[in-house]
């Protein structure tokens, strides 16, 4: 089974979270043979293996490759929120 969406978690040298970006699977595969995922702008592109290994791909000039990136699989649309928050309660 393949995952259609991931959160990419970018961290700094101390391990602190610097940014989180949601990416979706494209029809393309990277040089490792794994699917390529991209954010809605197309600026963030990453090849993600079935073991969650991430290789961020430059999409333009003057980009520094990200080295400390983790991928967290997101549930498919309509699935329950992994944090367990679920839908908001109706207001009275």
Features:
92 residues; mainly beta; 6-stranded antiparallel beta sheet; 40% strand; globular
Can you give me a brief rundown of this structure?
With 92 residues, the protein is an all-beta fold.
Could you explain how this protein is built, in words?
It contains no helices and six strands. It is mainly beta and 92 residues long. A six-stranded antiparallel sheet has the order 5-4-3-2-1-6, with no helix packed on it. It starts with a strand and ends in a 19-residue tail after the last strand.
Q: Can you lay out the helices and strands and say which pair or pack?
A:
Layout (H helix, E strand, L loop, with lengths): L4 E7 L5 E13 L5 E4 L6 E4 L5 E4 L11 E5 L19
Antiparallel strand pairs: 1-2, 1-6, 2-3, 3-4, 4-5
Number of strands: 6
The helix/strand order is EEEEEE
Described by strand count, sense and barrel closure, the largest sheet is: 6 strands, antiparallel
Q: Compute the number of helices.
A: 0
Q: First CA to last CA: what distance?
A: 41 Å
Neighbour order of strands in the largest sheet = 5-4-3-2-1-6
Structural class: mainly beta
| Rg calculated over all Cα atoms | 15 Å
